[in-house]
Structure formats: C-alpha cells, structure tokens
Amino acid sequence: MKIKKLDEWKLLFFTILILVLIAIAIYFIDFLNKNSGAIQTIFTMMLVIITGVYAYFNYKMTQLMSKQVVSEIEISNISLGSQFVESWFLERLKKQPEQINKDSFFEFELTFDVYNKSSGNGSIEKPVLILRFTNDDFEYKVSPITKDIDWEKRGETSQGVEYYHETVTDFGGTVFLQGGDRKKVELDYRIYKPTEEILNYIKKNLNSLEYFIEFHDNLNKKYCLKVTKVQPKKESVV
After folding, report:
1. Sheet containing 128-133: order of strands
2. How far apart, in Å, are the Cα atoms of 203 and each of 4, 152, 208?
3. Which of 45, 96, 123, 146 is deepest in the core (most CB within 10 A)?
C-alpha cells in the first residue's frame, strides 16, 4: 500500500516539473520574440569580437612561423683595407702621378660580420665594392675575387719549352647561413688594367672618394651599405 502511494507522489512530482518547464519555455520564447532585435545585436557583437580575437592570434602565429622559415640577415663591423690611403701610394700620387697608369693594379681587402637572426636558412651574395666619387657621383664597381687560379709546372718538351697545368679553385659567389649562424667574411678585390676614366678620378678626386658595398640576400632584398672604417691595406709598394 505504501509503495503504491509513493509511486503516486513521484508521478505527481514529475507532472508538476514538466508543467513548470513548459511554462518557462513559453516565457523564454515570449521573451525572445519581444527582444529578438536586442538579442541579435548582442550575438552579432559577440561574433565580431570572437572573429577579431581569432584574426589577431592567427596573425601572431603567422608571424612566428615566418620567423622560423625566413632568414633575417644583419651585417656589421664593415672594414676595408685600401691602397689609396697607404703612405707609399699617396707619396707616389703626389710626386710621380705618371706611374699610376693603365698597367697599375689596386687591391682592397673587405671584412665584415654577418648574422642570421632567424631560425630559417639564408644566404647573401658576396658584395660588390663600389667606389663613389661624391664630387659628381661617379661610381666604379669592383666584383669580389671568387676564384683562385694556380699554375703547376708539369714538365718541358724536348725543345726545352715548359708546360703547366691550370688548377682553378672556385670559392663560390654566396655566403650561406643556417639559422642562428654568425660568420666573419673576408674578401679580396682588385682593379686590374684600370680605365682612363677611373685613373683620372683617382688622380684628381681621391679626396672625394667614398666606399660602399652592394648585394642581395636569398629573398632578393637589396642592400647598399656605406663603409665607414677605411684603413691601409699594407704599408708596402706593390
């Protein structure tokens, strides 16, 4: 008898609960119908905010990934050794300028530090050295020496004519840098058989000479950097 009465109470409870839920649903639907415009505006604003936050984090993630795969190269401590500031050359230019002619050659030694700040691999071209005379912006470009040619005597013929074998060592035209790499680069340059034009500028406008280096990286970004540290290459006559 008690069990039957308990079941009746459970049935009554669940019936009342269902009626209450139906009443709440009717009220909520009525509330939505009356305030649909405001609710839609709120949800629209929330969607805009969520979209903006997503776009921001997506942008930051893209930046982070690009730094991991794209090189970021920095050049510093550029120094040039030039014969044009050596005492013997300046003395010759002053007293015997006729000895500076088309049979002369002029040598330069460039050193600089290169650093790949990114974790992505990269490279730069070995720079071209630019001699710029600021009095009228005349420029003369000198390519780096990237090959070494060695002649080795192999013997001679029965007539006493010596013959040689040519060995070419190619140092390449680029400097390769893995992510995080630092390197000190040393390059040699030579003006061989100078033209009359560059000879005239050297003899008459040497005081207006400035030096620059120009190169591209593996992303085809162009660099043109002024060399501020110029010193004697060596204090001896060549």
Report:
1. 138-142, 128-133, 209-216, 222-227
2. 123, 38, 11
3. 123
| Each residue's pLDDT tens digit, 4-29 | 445 566 666 777 777 777 777 666 66
Q: Which pTM was predicted?
A: 0.65
Which residues, at least 6 apart from 222, have a Cβ–Cβ distance to it below 8 Å?
A: 214, 215, 216
CB contact at 8 A, 73 and 122: yes
For 102-154, give the DSSP string.
TT-EEEEEEEEEEEE-SSS-EEEEPPEEEEEETTTTEEEEE-B--EEEEEEEE
| Rg of the Cα atoms in the chain | 39
Q: Rounded distance, CA 104 to CA 60, Å?
A: 57
Q: What does the DSSP assignment read for 160-180?
A: S-EEEEEEEEE--SEEEE-TT
Could you give the CA distance from residue 123 to residue 210 in angstroms, rounded to a whole number? 26
**Of 235, 233, 27, nearest in space to 110 by CA:** 233
Phi then psi dihedrals of residue 181, to 5 deg: -70, 145
Question: Shortest CA distance to 142 belongs to which of 92, 78, 192?
Answer: 192
Q: What angle do CA 205, 211, 217 make, to 5 degrees?
A: 150
- The tokens of 181 are what? 């790499």
